Amino acid sequence: MLVRFSVPEEDLALCGDDAGGSWRAAVPRRVVCVWRDTLRALPAGSGVALHDYLSTRGYTACFAAILRDSGHLVDSGPRETLKFYALTHREAASAAGLCVDPAISVEALRSFGLNAVAPQLSVELASGECAALQEDVARRCNSKGAVMYGYGGAGVVVRMWRLRSHAFAMERAVQEAIVTHRLSGAALRSRVARRLAGCRGRCAGAVGDVGGDAS
User: Fold this and answer.
1) Locate the DUF7920 domain: which residues (predicted)?
2) Of the four listed, 21, 44, 67, 71, which is most buried by Cβ atoms within 10 Å?
3) CA torsion angle 42 48 50 56 (round to 10)
4) What is the pLDDT of residue 76?
């Protein structure tokens, strides 16, 4: 779906009406509407300034859409919203990394009034600080976890991934088993037991071979 930055009404009309359709078919239009509402809620002049900032630098703002009725197990508040976590460059060479430095990205996005992740200090892999960070993320409740940025030797981001909280991972697994796969009884208990046994291993193995930074 392609719309103009400010999402004028004629562009939104081309997206169709989400009433009566399937939830999945309605998602693109709903995300566009949340983006439009996000722009309208920014301080005066910030929307135009954001457009100029992104377009002149060739940046794309990356976000996760938090929508009602989408099966989220985390309380993100009563309103649908967009959570921004990175800026990428349309012509970035491999040497420039996957995205703009997270600290710079978050500061820039927040300066326009956007809802962005909260960056934390970097930690070295296989260090006590890294293990403590993983444990902290794993124990978080009412949270999906953290976005991780892996830095290479040149100090650029060479990998991005999500580190899930154990609570979210298990609640999501149970929800999927019951709602999607219609499991119950012994089959449900067996599936949940397997996910529980592998939960810590997956979280511990998620860290790659470069330095990490969590947000």
Assistant:
1) 1-175
2) 67
3) 180
4) 72
Query: CB–CB of 29/65 below 8 Å?
Result: no
Q: Answer with the residue of higher pLDDT: 22 or 99.
A: 99
H-type helices in the chain, by residue range?
Answer: 9-14, 23-41, 46-57, 102-111, 128-139, 166-175, 185-204
Type of residue at 32: V
Angle 16-20-22 from CA coordinates, rounded to 5°: 85
Q: Tokens 């989408």 sit at which residue?
A: 70
Structure tokens at 54: 């992104």
- Bridge partners, residue 148, by sequence: 161, 214
Q: Is the pLDDT of residue 1 over 60?
A: yes
Structure tokens at 123: 């930690």
pLDDT (tens digit per residue) in 78-132: 788 999 999 998 876 556 688 999 989 999 999 999 999 988 888 888 889 988 9
